[in-house]
Write a structure and sequence with these properties.
Layout: E1 2-8, H1 15-23, E2 32-38, E3 41-47, E4 60-61, E5 67-75, H2 78-87, H3 99-108, E6 118-126, E7 131-136, E8 145-148, E9 154-157, H4 175-184, E10 197-199, E11 204-209, E12 217-218, H5 231-248, E13 256-259, H6 264-276, E14 281-287, E15 291-292, E16 296-297, H7 301-311, E17 314-320, H8 322-327, H9 329-336, H10 345-357, E18 362-364, H11 369-373, H12 408-416, H13 420-428, H14 433-439, H15 442-445, H16 466-475, H17 477-491, E19 496-498, H18 504-510, H19 515-518, H20 526-531, H21 538-541, H22 552-556, H23 561-567, H24 573-576, H25 584-593, H26 600-615
Parallel strand pairs: 13-14, 13-18, 14-17, 18-19
Antiparallel strand pairs: 1-3, 1-9, 2-3, 4-5, 5-6, 6-7, 7-11, 8-9, 8-10, 11-12, 15-16
Helix pairs in contact: 4-26, 6-7, 9-26, 10-17, 23-26
């Protein structure tokens, strides 16, 4: 695990530039730092030592020494890959899991990436062709960004902040990305906050030579989308594949911990991990006197402690208040890297800090189970049918989870009348186009496209089936929100977050589970519950879905109200940059008080964008 940075064919850059890039990534790898330079290529890494502790420093070299690897991640099937390579006569120089990638790439080129069960962002330099290949894992767990230089070269880094001050690049705020931000709480890839910087899409590779660049290409092979013939077959395969994924993600030479909420997903992972490991440390967050507007009581620590006692883990409950999370907002902003407002990440940040303090370098997370097995509350309504309307001319501002002023039946009926792309947005996301036109300045919104375009073209009407909506969440919500949150907030404290439910094998499996096998009669994640009914108590198996929801709406009406007013004041960075309108402060206050609508997450986006402009943007100017 590490952070990587470098470039090809940029004469203006030198070792001092690379040194500064790596310094900004130090939180991703405090244990070591190395660099490599040759023929117009310069790269480096900062290392968090998890495997190959004694000899796994990078760069790593192929058997011919013609391929040089700098990479961030873990290859969980490396023991099997290593065995196969050794059978072919390949001799290994290190115990690092990453060395298998060097040798495989030398033998097979980009086809090798599809053989990897793991999370990775890799930079592979070919000495013979003087070509750089960048590659990123299928789930999208590990980040990798690149920026084309005006001189014709390309720079790359694990985080955007590493590019700050890069010679010759003038960083321009991408207005479309900023306008999308309040809809999603994040900026959709491959776009970023800057027009000059792009994210390498998950499951893609990019080849760059000294005089040209090809576009990013997918390397993932076609998977079977044929549904299981029976629920019994699905349940058996789920147990097999998920167990394998959890077990493989225990590959570590250091102690392992796990997030534990007391719900189904984290309980499956913690229970199975505790059965495989000699010891396991678990962590949960406990809110002090807060109410979750979606599910009622926000504190799940009691249920988590019951599970910890049952599996015998060494458990830590971290009690937090509105003040604790407020005090961590600047750190949350910095490590979000670009504008990011997924408030549940504040809890991960707190847990990662505690884990780091007691010497835990790896944390297992239950993220991904909802998208793979049908866990979100609105999934039970996906089969609802209605009369389609022309949403391009009459975009309905209904948001299923946030328009609380009307009953659930009416919300379902109104959402179900929308075409597929608009329904996908309404089920899951936040600010409407109407909200954004009111809060952003008129000039700022000039020429801005609707965020619904993210879903348009993903599936053509009338092919939006319940499975399509869930699959779209796997392609968009899961990597851009959940996995981004886990990576950035654990790495903030030099801890590696691992998500067994997002392994390539689990993702492929999930495409074969039909909607009735995921949810029926109001029961969510039906097949997953059945797959683990023998090791979990009924109190967990039958417990309703309860996500980790930070009570943002409550705090913005009370202890965080001044943050809202500061963000929309005439003196704020949002005002100075001409991003918000002159009457937006009054509207924002009214939105925070609206008894019929939960607008907290939308407004929190503007608070975080203002903080990012105040604290981070200046580093690039």
């Amino acid at each position: 695990m590490c952070g990587i940075a470098g470039w090809i064919n940029i004469p203006q850059a030198n070792y001092e530039v690379l040194k500064k890039m790596l310094e900004r990534l130090r939180h991703r790898g405090p244990d070591d730092s190395r660099t490599f330079e040759e023929d117009g290529f310069m790269g480096g890494m900062v290392r968090l030592a998890i495997n190959g502790l004694n000899n796994g420093n990078q760069p790593l070299f192929s058997y011919s020494n013609n391929t040089i690897l700098l990479y961030n991640g873990e290859i969980y099937n490396s023991p099997a890959l290593r065995k196969n390579l050794e059978a072919k006569g390949i001799k290994f120089n290190t115990d690092s899991d990453g060395e298998v990638l060097c040798h495989l790439f030398e033998m097979e080129g980009p086809k090798c990436f599809d053989k990897l069960d793991g999370m990775f962002a890799a930079a592979l330099w070919d000495r013979r062709t003087r070509k750089l290949t960048l590659a990123r894992d299928i789930p999208g767990e590990k980040p990798l960004y690149y920026a084309n230089h005006p001189s014709g070269g390309t720079a790359f880094a694990s985080e955007i902040k590493a590019f700050a001050g890069f010679p010759g690049i003038n960083f321009t705020l991408d207005r479309q990305s900023l306008a999308d931000f309040p809809t999603f709480l994040w900026i959709p890839e491959p776009q970023t906050v800057f027009s000059e910087v792009k994210a390498l899409p998950r499951g893609h590779y990019l080849e760059i030579s000294a005089d040209s660049q090809t576009k990013a290409l997918p390397y993932q092979q076609n998977r079977s989308h044929e549904f299981f013939a029976s629920e019994e077959d699905a349940v058996a395969e789920i147990r097999k594949v998920v167990d394998q994924s959890i077990q493989s993600r225990l590959l570590s030479e250091v102690d392992i911990g796990a997030f534990l909420s007391g719900g189904l997903d984290s309980s499956i992972i913690a229970t199975r991990a505790s059965q495989e490991l000699s010891s396991l440390t678990t962590f949960c967050i406990g809110f002090e006197g807060a109410t979750d507007p979606y599910h009622g009581k926000a504190d799940e620590s009691e249920q988590a402690e019951e599970t910890a006692n049952r599996i015998g883990s060494s458990h830590h409950t971290i009690r937090v208040s509105a003040k604790d999370f407020r005090d961590s907002l600047e750190s949350f902003c910095w490590h979000g890297d670009q504008p990011f407002a997924v408030s549940s990440g504040l809890g991960i940040l707190q847990i990662a800090r505690k884990a780091s303090e007691i010497g835990i370098k790896v944390l297992l997370s239950g993220d991904g189970a909802d998208e793979c097995f049908g866990g979100y509350s609105w999934y039970r309504h996906l089969a609802a049918e209605g009369t389609k309307v022309d949403a391009e001319k009459n975009e309905d501002p209904i948001l299923f989870s946030h328009d609380t002023g009307i009953n659930e039946r009416e919300r379902v009926e109104r959402v179900s009348r929308l075409p597929g792309p608009h329904r996908a947005r309404a089920w899951h996301y936040y600010a409407t186009e109407e909200d954004k036109r009111a809060l952003f300045g008129t000039d700022f919104m000039d020429g801005i496209k609707s965020s619904t375009r993210i879903f348009s073209g993903w599936k053509s009407e009338p092919s939006w089936t319940p499975e399509n909506f869930i699959s779209q969440d796997r392609d968009c919500y899961l990597p851009f929100e959940m996995l981004r949150k886990v990576d950035r907030m654990t790495m903030a404290h030099s801890v590696e977050g691992r998500t067994p439910f997002t392994s390539p094998s689990v993702l492929a499996l999930s495409e074969r589970i039909s909607y009735p096998m995921m949810t029926s009669n109001g029961v969510l994640k039906k097949a997953l519950r059945a797959a683990y009914s023998d090791i979990l108590p009924k109190s967990i198996l039958h417990r309703p879905k309860h996500g980790f929801n930070v009570p943002i709406d409550l705090w913005l009406r009370g202890k965080w109200k001044d943050l809202l007013m500061d963000a929309f004041s005439k003196q704020s960075a949002l005002s100075r940059e001409g991003i918000i309108g002159p009457d937006s402060a009054e509207l924002a206050l009214a939105m925070s008080r609206n008894p019929r609508r939960l607008n907290g997450h939308t407004l929190f986006c503007f608070i975080m964008l203002n903080l990012w402009l105040e604290k981070s943007y200046g580093n690039y100017c």
